[in-house]
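hey team, just a heads up i'm posting the complex here instead of the shared drive bc the drive is being weird again. everything in one block, sequence lines first with there labels, then the predicted structure for the whole assembly after. its two chains so it's a bit long, scroll down
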Amino acid sequence: MIKHLAAASLLLTTACLVAGPARAADPGITDSEILIGDVEPLTGPPALLGVAASIGHKIAIAEANAAGGINGRKIKYVLEDDGYVTARTIQGVKKVIDVDKVFAMIGISGSGQSIAVMPVLEKSGIPTVIDVAPVKHLWEPPRKNVFVVGQSYEEGIIHLVNFLADRNPGKKWGLITQDDDYGITVRDGFDSVVKAKKLNVVYSGNYKKGQQDFSSDMLQLKESGAEVFLAGGIIAENIAMMKELEKLSIKPVTGIFWPGRIEPVLKLMGPAGDGIYAVDYVEPFAGPAGKAFLEKAKPLVSEAEFKGINRYTMTGYAAAKVLIAAIERCGKQPTWACTIAELEKTKNVETGVMAPISFGPGVRFSNQKLQIMQADAKTLSFKPVD
Amino acid sequence: MQYLVQLLISGLAIGAMYGLIAMGFAVIYKSTGLVNFAQGEMTMITAYVAWTISTTVSGNVFVVAIGAILAAVVLGLVIERLVMRPMLGEPVFATVMVTIGLAVILRSAINFIWDAYPHGLDIGMGRGIVHLGGIGVRTGQLAVIATLLLLLAAIWAFFRYSKVGVAMRAVAADDRTALLMGISATKVHALAWAASSVIAGIGGVFFALSYDLSPAMFQLGLKAFPATILGGLDAVLGSGLGGLLIGITENLAGGYLGSGMKEVAGFAMIIVVLMVRPFGIFGERDIERV
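-- predicted structure starts here --
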C-alpha cells in the first residue's frame, strides 16, 4: 500500500513539474468569466494617460463582450490605481495577480513603473501586453510572457528630428528636455541625429521635472537665434513653452513628442500651437481612422469616459484587441502557455487605430510604424503630413 | 539690457504668485504656529473652482472673482472647523501630519471632481500681450504684480490699525494672555485659515490665468514655501517680498547661468540667507527669558 502511495505521489509530482507554469487550470477563468488585470495612474497629473489607456481597454473589452465574449466567457476588467508611484504599481500588480487572480495583464502605468514590475511579471509567468509607455528595457532582453505594443521613444524622436532636419536644411536648432529618464531618451535620440546630420545646435536646455515657468528658458532660446525647436516637455511644459514663445513674438519650427500629442493641448496653446509638428504611431482623431474609432467608442463607454479619450485610448484599445484575440484563438480552455504562444503568433493584426501589429518567436515588441502630424489650431486637431 | 529687463519682469510676475501663496503660509503660521503643508493644494482647489464658475456660471471677471473668494473663504473655514480645530492642543508633529494628509486628499480630489486634463482659465482678460518698450508681457502678469503690492499695503494696514488685525497679532504673540483679554483664539484661527485660503487662492487664480490649470498646480506650494522661509515664517509681508526675491533670483539664474540652475538658485539663496538670519529676512528672532 505504502509503495502504491509513494508511486502515485511521485507520478503526481512529476506531472506537476512537467506541466510547469502551463497549469491545467490557470487562474482568472471560470465557466462564465475571464479576468484581465491592469494597474494605471488614475489620480494625479499622469492620470491623463492612465485613465485614457484604461478607457481604451474598456472599449475593446466592451466590444468583445457585446460580440459574446471570449468563446462564451465574458471579460471582466480589474483596474487598480497606482497614482504613478512605483511602489504602488508593484503592490497593485501583486494584488491583481495574487488576490484577484486575473488571467492576463494589460497596460501597466508608465515606463519606470512597468520596468520595476518586470521581475514580478516574469516570476508569475502571466501573459502580459504592455501598451502605455514603450521603452527598450521592456523588450530587451525579451521575456517569454511580456509583449509590448508601440514604438520606442528613441525611435520616435529620431523620426521626428530627421523629418524636421530634412524640411529645414542648414537651420539653427534648439532643444529642451526634462531631467529624468524620459528626457534622457529624448536627448539621446536627438543627439544621434545631430551627429549623423551635423545639425547646428545653438541652444540646449534641461529643466527640472515639475517646472512651470519657462520664461528664462524661452528667452535664452530666442537669444540663441534657434529656428527649429524640439520641445521636450510632456504636456503642461510644452503649453507653457509655446505661450512664452508667443509672448516673445517668435515662432520657430517646433516639434513635440507623442506623450504631449493630445488635442486639448492645442486649445490651451491657442494660435501659438498652430503648425507644430508631432510624431506618433497611432492615428490622429481628425483622420478617417480616428473618426471611425470615436464612432465605435461612443456607445461603448459613458459620456465622462468618452470625454477622456485621447491617443492613449488608442494604444490601450489596440493592445487589448491583440490580447483578446490571442486568448480567443486558444479555444474553450485557454491557458497561460497557450495565450503566450498565440501572442507570439500574432501577425498583422488590424486594430484600425495603428499599423497592423505583429510579434514573433523571440520578438516581444510590435515596432509600430511612425507618422508625422501637424497641428491645426483652427480645428484643434493633428493632421498627417507624410 | 532688454534681456535683463525681460528676465526681471518675468521674475517679478512669477515671484508675485509665489509671494501670494507664501503670504498664505505666513498668515496661518503667525496666527496658529502651524505650517500648513496643504497650502499649494488649497491654492489649486480655489483656482479650479474659479475655472468651474467661469465655464458654468459666467465668464465675467467680477462673478469669477467674487465666486472664487467666497469659495476660498468656505474652504478655509471648513478645513479649520472640521480638520484643524479638533487638533488643537495636540502635538505639533501630529498636526503637521494632518495637513500633509489633507494635501494628499485635496490633490486626489482634483481627479474625482474635475479631471487630469489641463484647462485654461478664460475670463476675457489677463491673457493678452502688451509690449512695453519692445518687451512682451501678459496683462495677467502685470495684474498679479499690482495685486501683490496692493495686498501687501492692505495687510500691513490691517495688522496695524484694525481691531481684528491687532487681535490676531495678540493671539500670535501670546494666546493665553489674549484669551484673558477676551479674544477668542478659535475665531482668530478660523479667520486666519479663511484669509490664508483667499490670499493664496488669488495667487492660484492668477497662475491659472497666466499659465494653465492642471493637477500639477499644487507644486506651487513647494515653490512658495521657500519664499516664506526666506521672508520669515512669521512675517506675512516679508513672505510676499520673499516670493518676489525667489522669482527674480530663479529667472536671473535661469537666464544667465542656464536652465538647470533655475530651480536650484532660489534654494541656494535660502541656504545663504538662513545661515546669516535663521529666522528669515523679515522674521522675528525668538527670545526666551530664563
